[in-house]
Amino acid sequence: MLGLAVGHLRGIRQSRVLVARLNRDLPRPADQSGLLSLSEADRRAEGLRACIRGAAGLSARLRGDETVRELWPEVVFLRRHAGILKPYFEALRARRVLYSGQCYYNHWYLSRGLRDLGWRADVLNWDPSPASQIFYHGEDVHFDGGSPYNLARDLRFYLDALYRYDVVHFANAHNIGFGAPLRSLFELRLGRHAEILLLRQLGKKTGYTNNGCLDGVLQSSFAKWGPQSVCASCRWNDVPEVCSDWRNRAWGEFRNSVTDYQCLLGGNRADFNLAPTVHESPEAYCIDKDIWDPGLEIPERLRLAPAPEGTIRLYHGVGNKEGRTRDDGTNIKSTHIYLPLIEKLRAEGHRLDLLSPTDIPNVDVRFLQMQADIFLEMLTFGWFGANAREAMMLGKPVICYLRPEWLDSLRAEIPGYADELPIVSATPDTVEAVLRDLIASPERRREIGRKSREFAIKWHSKDVAARRFDTIYSELLRGNPLLVEHYV
């Protein structure tokens, strides 16, 4: 009890010292409809941090090689006095966004587009998996694994980020954070999600990009989507540690409690994805039209040998194929449906080549995609992913099942996107007729390809995305919650 009392008195004294320093050294925060320039925000942030560290009894100057033990008192001080400090952090607001964690390459190209508009927009890659790096196109900061692990580097970056950014945008289920090591450090000392809760307590705005069927939706809810259950063909259907109602519910509750603006594409409106903070946001899944340019020269090492006249090249990509495919070959990408169909058509005399590359860096995959004629995507999931967006940007026709209910929910928010989407919808029952028609119709393939390129540039190019998120982030920073009206 005595120790608790002493700690309480120390906290009161620190609060008084902090308030005195803030009043003496910094201008009083005021409601600001405008945003500071980057240089002014950084100047004020430097003064604020010096004031905070001084009140905490720490040196105002940082060497840059501080240990976790030396850095941690600042974390404790910020957490203890977040209520006092929040308006001072909010007064720093400028065009400054951090993308914490990769989202394929989407965050990379969105950040580059925002930089062109005057934003500080950086990408932190904290993914320790060497196998995942082939999907990414760039980063500004990398938490490499290393041995021993450099936890002080991560904590140093986190603390710097509190003063350096006003928006933090995350992506992917169970990945709102700054990497597992930092998460574990905070959880051990301050409780679960403490590093994210501190962001919120200091007034930072948070964005999130949704990826996958288990993100915000219970397994039992997703399994009800028809006409065929996607879950029945998923490797993780019977692995509750990966996907289950209890796990998905816990994630959805936390995700919705700590995000201001969530990006989704393609419906899947059930459970936690019905929140008014969840928006149909095609621009979040952006790519660079100059990187996926059908006119680019194909490097010799990636050029396919000439095929016999009349050959149609089919492209069926499955990222992380081994991890997503059952022993019997079944997966949500519908490989188990396409392979027998292709063999049937070959037996009838159709000349078909199947391209299904694996373990190739994504930045190189586009050159193989450029040499394909038709893209084969998921037939039960109900929507499309990165491979289809890449195909459209390259001017290629895509076959993929588009669930009518998801199209309708998307149309309610973005009617133009739903009405213009050029993907050719097919189910397991109709895909044979659809594929036969495209094989026999080169003119139709070219027309769909032309519309696909135009569509992708209009909705998914990084420049369009940057303009959209310049508005979104700026409005959030000015206090507009941007809630989806028909879900409020």
Q: How would you portray this structure in words?
A:
The chain is α/β, with parallel strands linked by helices and 488 residues long. It folds into 2 domains: 96-286 and 466-487, Rossmann fold; 300-460, 3-Layer(aba) Sandwich (Rossmann fold). The protein contains 19 helices and 11 strands. It has helices at residues 2-25, 38-55, 68-80, 82-90, 106-116, 151-164, 180-190, 194-201, 219-222, 245-257, 321-324, 335-347, 362-369, 386-393, 404-413, 415-420, 431-440, 442-460, 462-477, and strands at 96-100, 120-125, 141-142, 167-171, 205-209, 261-264, 278-280, 312-315, 352-355, 374-376, 398-399. The strands form 2 sheets. Strands 3-2-1-4-5-6-7 form a 7-stranded parallel beta sheet, covered by helices on one side. Strands 9-8-10-11 form a 4-stranded parallel beta sheet. α3 (68-80) runs parallel beside α6. The two termini are 47 Å apart.
Summary tags:
488 residues; alpha/beta; Rossmann fold; 7-stranded parallel sheet; 4-stranded parallel sheet; 19 helices; 11 strands
